Automatic annotation (TrEMBL):
Keyword Lyase: yes
Keywords, ordered alphabetically: Carbohydrate metabolism, Lyase
Recorded metabolic or biological pathway in which this protein acts: Carbohydrate acid metabolism
Record bears the keyword Heme: no
Source species: Bombilactobacillus mellifer
Name this polypeptide is given: KDPG and KHG aldolase
Subunit structure: Homotrimer.
Family: Belongs to the KHG/KDPG aldolase family.
InterPro entries hit by this protein: Aldlse_KDPG_KHG, Aldolase_TIM
PANTHER family tied to this protein: 2-DEHYDRO-3-DEOXY-6-PHOSPHOGALACTONATE ALDOLASE-RELATED, 2-KETO-3-DEOXY-6-PHOSPHOGLUCONATE ALDOLASE
Molecular function terms, GO-annotated: lyase activity
Amino acid sequence: QKVQWTQKIAAAGVVAVIRANSVSEAVKISDAVIAGGMRAIELTFTVPQADQAIKEVKTKFAQPDLIIGAGTVFEPTSARLAIMAGAQFIVSPSFNSAVAKLCNFYQIPYIPGCGTVNEMQKALTYGADIIKLFPGSVYGPAMVKSVLAPLPQVNLMPTGGVNLDNMADWFAAGVIAVGSGSQLTRPAATGDYQQVTANAQAYMSKLADLRQ
Ligand code: 3PG
């Protein structure tokens, strides 16, 4: 299951990172990005009652090719809450060994944030499935190329500062997926969910071009 869900994230290509002020807002943003063709949703634990948001999104938008996970999971209590709510992957800005063990126990892909090869090595030792290069924009695509030379087996997913303009550079450097939050969902702040859908469509059409 861990491998299968990791492959689903790679197939989705872009993980929509959803931060919102309420469960209902998180559901609306999820709806908008799914309508735009996105297939991987990360609901962050900065959303109040994030586990509830995971449950609702999973129930409302159940589709076989959709994968719903939890983000900003710093410690095992939130990880377990997320997994019990149905999260299919766990993302964090940093690495936590207790979260890694829990994800291994439940066979859930773990995607910890790492910024150095040392951190990546540790995360891989604990069975991390994908490494979130975070904050992506601080390191840039050149970091991906450098890391993949000695560690060609690493699945890298940069997040933080990823947008439509730099997406191609990340994939050219060899990442398996990217995470995008603010650039994708910003119009939701003014209630313009149609624009969020349009943004999602633009990401997906760019991805399709890159994968041709
Ligand atoms: C986040 O922390 O919200 C994610 O890393 C997304 O970053 P972004 O908003 O720069 O895409």
